[in-house]
Write a structure and sequence with these properties.
Largest sheet: 6 strands, parallel
CATH superfamily of the largest domain: HUPs
Distance between the termini: 57 Å
Pathway: Cofactor biosynthesis; (R)-pantothenate biosynthesis; (R)-pantothenate from (R)-pantoate and beta-alanine: step 1/1
EC number: 6.3.2.1
GO molecular function, one term: ATP binding
Bound molecules: adenosine-5'-triphosphate, pantoate, beta-alanine
CATH architecture of the largest domain: 3-Layer(aba) Sandwich
InterPro entries: Pantoate_ligase (IPR003721), Pantoate_ligase_C (IPR042176), Rossmann-like_a/b/a_fold (IPR014729)
Helix content: 25-40%
Strand order of the largest sheet: 1-4-3-2-5-6
Structural class: alpha/beta
CATH class of the largest domain: Alpha Beta
Keywords: ATP-binding, Ligase, Nucleotide-binding, Pantothenate biosynthesis
CATH topology of the largest domain: Rossmann fold
Shape: globular
Radius of gyration: 21 Å
Length: 361
């Protein structure tokens, strides 16, 4: 939390806090360690909610869940360059420090007023890249040299195929965050379902004494679009069509619920819906239409994210997908095209197909 919060935070007793709150602002590894040590001794549980800022209701739902179950919640706000590809949107990624600080202070008051929580937001961790990469930032290239954590093969599939450095960046920064904060529990959103599989592997394979908690995807009430910091890029015209991915996944879910188990039928339902919406949009012409490309639609094993030909109903599966919303071709006079002039936006979403209990008798 560089400029905005730095300017607006009070610095009483040498302890920086978010304005009008008891939420500590920690910027360095040593500051977190100093804050953390007493809680190791007094056996108060500490939760970490890792974020890249630009907070929305999805992030707040993770913090609420963390406060219910832990004495202290630490929220990290750090836009980690290592998980952005060289041609991705690092430069334009939304940074809303002041609004984030206000949202956290508001939520902390809500948590204090609600008697059902074990804890509140105790601290935000907002490091610089120099702090997070003490040996120097290794770069965003696929062949960058440096100290990385890689989780394969799961990190190479799906999102990893489209974003080859993404899960390396995520696993590396999460390993650092976990080592710095030493949380008992970490909270992640199901919206990034493959990320949750990667993090669970990281915790298992490196024997980290951490429980990974996955919270449901928060969606827009009106049409179910998964909340995402990148939605600000869309602008109203593309925002209206963006639920196409969720609707396609729901069509596939309906096929599964209706008894289909094979890939062709389940995913075929999603593909048909996406193709129909694309045809409808294309027919509208450049002044009105929205163009998008389906990056992938997947039906995968919940533990490995490997593609499934047939769903084992005892185990279930994960329906997921990514679409790229293309820039508006012929904007109207004064049309709001979204943050940064409405660049291409890659949206992801997923639905879990639950394993159906089989009767033992
Ligand atoms: N709609 C959502 N519901 C629940 N959790 C979410 C939602 N969106 C993001 N999260 C979770 O919040 C955490 C931080 O995510 P992040 O800061 O990247 O936000 P984001 O909205 O996913 O951003 P982006 O648009 O860049 O993907 C992750 O664990 C992510 O899964
Ligand atoms: C987990 C995370 C904060 C790591 O930078 C990021 O990938 C995110 O916000 O989902
Ligand atoms: N929520 C995942 C972060 C990213 O797309 O970079």
């Amino acid at each position: 939390m560089a400029s905005g919060c730095a300017a607006s935070a009070s610095r009483g007793n040498g302890l920086e806090k978010l304005p009008n709150s008891s939420i500590r602002v920690l910027r360095t590894v040593s500051a977190v360690r100093r804050w953390r040590r007493p809680h190791l001794l007094d056996q108060r549980s500490v939760a970490l909610v890792p974020t890249m800022g630009a907070l929305h209701e999805g992030h707040l739902s993770l913090i609420r869940a963390a406060a219910r179950e832990n004495h202290h919640v630490v929220v990290s706000l750090y836009v980690n360059p290592a998980q952005f590809g060289v041609r991705e949107d690092l430069a334009s990624y939304p940074v809303t420090w002041d609004a984030d600080a206000e949202a956290l202070v508001r939520l902390d008051r809500e948590l204090a007023d609600d008697g059902h929580n074990l804890g509140r937001i105790s601290a935000v961790f907002a490091p610089t890249t120099a702090e997070m990469y003490p040996g120097g930032f290794p770069g965003q290239e696929v062949d960058s040299k440096g100290s990385f954590v890689t989780i394969t093969p799961v990190g190479e599939l799906l999102e990893g195929r489209s974003r080859p450095t993404f899960f390396r960046g995520v696993a590396t920064v999460c390993m650092k965050l976990f080592n710095i904060v030493q949380p008992e529990r970490v909270y992640f959103g199901q919206k990034d379902v493959q990320q949750t599989v990667v993090i669970k592997r990281l915790v298992r394979d490196f024997m980290l004494p951490i429980e990974v908690v996955v919270c449901p995807t928060a969606r827009a009430e009106e049409d179910g679009l998964a909340l995402s910091s990148r939605n600000v890029y869309l602008g109203p015209r593309r925002r209206a069509v963006a639920p196409v991915l969720y609707n396609a996944l729901r069509a596939a879910e309906d096929a599964y619920t209706g008894g289909a188990r094979d890939r062709a039928t389940v995913l075929g339902a999603a593909e048909s819906l996406a193709a129909r919406v694309l045809a409808e949009q294309t027919a509208l012409g450049p002044e009105k239409r929205v163009r998008f490309e389906v990056d992938y639609l997947s039906l995968a094993d919940p533990d490995t994210m490997e593609e499934l030909e047939v769903v084992d109903p005892a185990k279930g599966g994960i329906l997921s997908g990514a679409v790229k919303m293309l820039p508006v071709e012929a904007p109207g006079e004064g049309e709001d095209l979204g943050h940064s002039g409405g660049p291409p936006v890659r949206l992801i979403d997923n639905i879990i197909l639950p394993g159906i209990e089989t009767k033992s008798d």
